[in-house]
Structure formats: C-alpha cells, structure tokens
Amino acid sequence: GPPDRGWGWMIVAGCFLVTICTRAVTRCISIFFVEFQTYFGQDYARTAWIHSIVDCATMLCAPLGSLISNHVSCQVGIMLGGLLASTGLILSSFATSLEHLYVSLGVLTGLGFALCYSPAIAMVGKYFNKRKALAYGIAMSGSGIGTFILAPVVQLLIEQFSWRGALLILGGFVLNLCVCGALMRPIALKEDRKTAPEFLEQDYVPQAQKQDFKRMSICSPLIKVWSHECLCYCSWKEYDFLLMPGFMVLAVSVLFMAYGCSPLFVYLVPYALSVGVSHHQAAFLMSILGVIDIIGNITFGWLTDRRCLKKHRYFCYLFAVGMDGLCCLFLPVLQNFPLLVPFSFTFGYFDGAYVTLIPVVTADVVGTSSLSSALGVVYFLHAIPYLVSPPVAGWLVDTTGSYTASFLLCGFSMIFSSILLCSARLVKKIKRMHLRSLSNDTGTKHHIWTNGVIAYSVTAELDQKDAEFLAADTNSYSNR
C-alpha cells in the first residue's frame, strides 16, 4: 500500500510548488490586464480572453498530461510542461499584439501548465492513503499562498521593469516546474501490479507472447506499447472508469460546480464597487478570499483525515459545495463592506475545502490505479464552464442591470451539483442494503465494486446436503 510518510512529503512539497507555478501564476495574469489594455489600446472584453484561454487550455489539456505521465513517466511530463510554460511566458514578453498573447501566453503557457497539474496531484494520491486529505490540503494551498505572495511581487516587477520585464522574470520562475518534476519519484502499488497478470490471462494474446511477457519485467512501462492489441487493451484499462455510473454522476456534478464557482472571482470586486465600497476595500475582500482559501485547504484536509470524519469525506465535499452555493444566493442582499467581509470569509473557506477534496472524492469513485487519468478528465470538465460562465454572467448583468440574476444562477448551479451527488450516493446505499437483505435470504454472496456495479456469485461453501439436493434435482430433470 501507499507509504504515507518519507518521500511522500517531498512529493507534497513538489506538488505545492507546482500549484504555485500553475494556478497562482494564472491568477496573477489578471494583474497585467490594465497594462495590456493601455499598451495595445483594446477594450476589456478582448483583453479578458487572455485569462480565459490560459484557464481553459490548462483544464482542456489535463487528460494529455495524464496520458504522458502514464505512458512515459510523471517526471518527463512535468519537466516538459515546465519548459513549455516558461517558453510561452518568455515569448509573451516580446508580444506585438493581443493575438500574439492569445497564442504564447494563452495556448502555449496553458498547455505547459496542463502537463504539470494533474500528474503532480495524482502522485500525491499514490503516496498517501491514511493522511490523503491533509496531504492534498497542503499541496493545493499553493494556489492561495502563491496568489497572496505573487500578486504584490508581480505588481512591483511591473513598476520596476515594465510588463515585458515582469513576464520575462515570471518565465524564469516557472522553470522551477522542472525541479518539481525531478522530485516525482515513481512508485509501484499493488493495484498497479494487479492489472498485468490479469492482462496475461486474456484469450486474444498469443501463447508465445504471454511467455515473453512473463520473462520480462511486468513493471516496465514500455511493455504497454509492444503490440497493437496490448496498447488498445492498456488504453481501455486506463479509461474504463468512464463507463462507471458513479463517475458519470461525478462528471455531471463537476460541470455544474465549476459553472457556479467561476464568475464570483471575476465579479466580486465590480459588485462591491457597484454597492458603494471603496477600491481599497474591494481589493481587500479579494485578499481575504485568497488567505481564507488557504486555511480552508489545510484545516478541512486535516479535519476530514480524522477517524470520525474519514468515512464521511464524500458528504463533507457535498456540504462544502452546497455552502458555497448558499453564500452566492445571499450575496445580492449584502450591500455594504461590513456584510461582505463575512461573505468573503465563508465563501473562501468552503472554496478551499472542496478544492482539497476533489482528488479524494475522485479516488473514492475510481480507485487509486485510475486516479491520474480520472483527474485529467475531471479537470478537463472544468474547462468548458470556466470559459463560458464569466461571459454568461456578464451578459446577465448587462441585460438585467444588476448582479442578482448572475449570483442566483451561480448559487443554484452549485447547490444542484451537491444534491445530484447526494442523491447518487443514497441510491447506491439503498441498492447495497437491498442486496444485503437478498443475500441473507438466499445464501448468495455478492460483490459491490467501487463503481456501484453489482456482481453475483453463489457461495462456494454450499452445505453437503445442498450439494446432494442440487445433484438429485438435476438428475431428475435430465431423466425427464
């Protein structure tokens, strides 16, 4: 099983730095907005696309990151991502138009971040079991801590070296991803080993090839690409979780959750300004959100690792998402600074809380061996709402003349996400209880797999009398 100690904490440190270099740097790109706007003389909407493209590319290409780390190695994937992201930022410092920035800062840097993000997070899941939520809490807090530290630093760099110099320095800073990649030492778990012997039993693999496989080391990642059938089988093994009912429900709920959480980070400051809060106080609300986000990451991770809550991590995740939804519903009523401060505290805390538990909940649904691929898909699903929801919210503000409709839509979207997962878990529980009562009545043993698929098998330990009775019954049937 996972070691839960030793080198695992170095993996957490590496993942923490990956989160700073990817998520925090992405958040800090919004600081360049005014600079890009004034330099290129473009409107807000066209400039805003840069941030949307980075965010979307990071999430959209997440499965590619999983694919490279599964087929080559996690270390190669993250190092390659670091080089791409750094190249994107350095090329951006020579930009002559917004279109140039869309490609270099948006697509190239976003792609680099995608290759690093999900493989690094999946590695933490492989090294931890008992303290998984705490490890994730620390690793994911890099986003909040990084934003808190990098935001003023980036502002200072822009003042000292102009936006071009600041992007060049950020490009150098992001090269630290290559160091993080070097830390990601691969680990072989029992679950990973199980798939190889199972593969050897497949009927369509020639006998001679089976012998070759047995002679060679099963752990070699290159074995997967030996033959076409082998590659198809391994690719299917990697993504067979896509047909799990549990994962399908999780995927739909993630779409609604990502839709609900995205616009708030874009529109909290404009909303605060619209209800008469000063610029300084509006920026302070955003800082509170960032800092409390970190506290949510770490404390919720630690809390859900306690023995009393460990079994209920799934429901803790639902609770956190639901609470964020409720906060959004109340937001239109909060129309002054003293009321908006508690909102920032509550929303920030629960935002940090559920972000920590996304990998934990995904691992509960698909198991550790498929975690890297599943996380790639989960983060990929974030991309579409991230790209769509801020413009939709902006359109609602323009049409209705107030922020109420936008915030209500966000709130209901997150609450729906929570209710959907809760209903799925309850259905699964009822099915399990029904089967348990059936097995007690009929003497059949059943296995319930992680995805909720049920397989029946008659108990091997039949009484001698039962066996005789069955034999007699079949004889009489054949005589007939």
Topology readout:
Elements: H1 8-28, H2 33-40, H3 44-60, H4 62-71, H5 74-92, H6 98-127, H7 132-140, H8 142-174, H9 176-183, H10 190-200, H11 207-215, H12 228-239, H13 245-274, H14 279-303, H15 307-310, H16 313-330, H17 337-366, H18 371-400, H19 404-442, E1 444-448, E2 454-458, H20 464-479
Antiparallel strand pairs: 1-2
Helix pairs in contact: 1-6, 1-7, 1-8, 1-9, 3-6, 3-18, 4-5, 4-6, 4-18, 5-6, 5-8, 5-9, 6-7, 6-18, 7-14, 7-17, 8-14, 13-14, 13-16, 13-17, 13-18, 13-19, 14-17, 16-17, 16-19, 17-18, 18-19
Can you tell me about this structure?
The chain crosses the membrane at residues 6-25, 76-95, 101-122, 134-158, 164-184, 247-270, 282-303, 315-334, 340-362, 374-397, 403-427. It is found in: Basolateral cell membrane. It holds the Pfam family MFS_1. This is Monocarboxylate transporter 12. InterPro entries: MFS, MFS_dom, MFS_trans_sf, Proton-linked_MCT. The structure is a single chain. The termini are far apart. This protein is 79% helix and 2% strand. It has a single domain (7-188, 241-428), classed as Up-down Bundle (Growth Hormone, Chain: A), CATH 1.20.1250. By secondary structure, the chain is mainly alpha-helical. Helix 4 (62-71) crosses helix 5 (74-92), helix 7 packs antiparallel against helix 14 and helix 13 (245-274) packs parallel to helix 18 (371-400). The model is unreliable at 195-232 and 449-480 (pLDDT under 50). Strands 1-2 form a two-stranded antiparallel sheet. The protein is built from 20 helices and two strands. The radius of gyration is 26 Å and the shape is globular.
